[in-house]
Amino acid sequence: EMDVFVKDGFTGEPYMAQVWPGPTYMPDWFHPNASAYWQSSIQRFYDSVPFDGLWTDMNEASNFCNDGAGQVCSNTDPSNCPTGNLDTQTNCCLSCETVDGSNSYDFPPYAINNDASYQALAQKTIPMSAKHF
What we know:
With 133 residues, the chain is α+β, with helices and mostly antiparallel strands. The chain has one domain (16-125). 11% of the residues lie in helices and 17% in strands.
C-alpha cells in the first residue's frame, strides 16, 4: 500500500529474499513513507501485544538465497520453505534467476574480494541492481 519495499531492478516488483522467518521483502529505508510504515506496523503490534522493548534483528539486507546471481526471486512453492528447524532454515526455498547476466552493477568486469574469497557482489545479500527510492 505505502510502496516502501526495495524493488527488483527488472520487474519493478518488491525484491523477494529469504532470511530466518522465511520469504520476505526488504524495507526501502530511503523511501519517504518508510518511517510512517514502520511506526504504524509497530503500533498495530503494540496494540495487540503491549511490549516494553523492541529488537530489530536482521536489519541488514541479508539473503539466504542469493548465490550472487539471483536478480529476481519468487516463492513458487510456499510448501517448500523450511520452518522451525535451524538446520534447514537457511536452505533456499525461492526460485531465483539471472535476468541480465551482462548487467555491470551485478556482474562488474573486475573481481571483488567479497567475503575474502572473491564471491559475487550479491552473495548472501540483495543484488546491486535492486532499486531504492
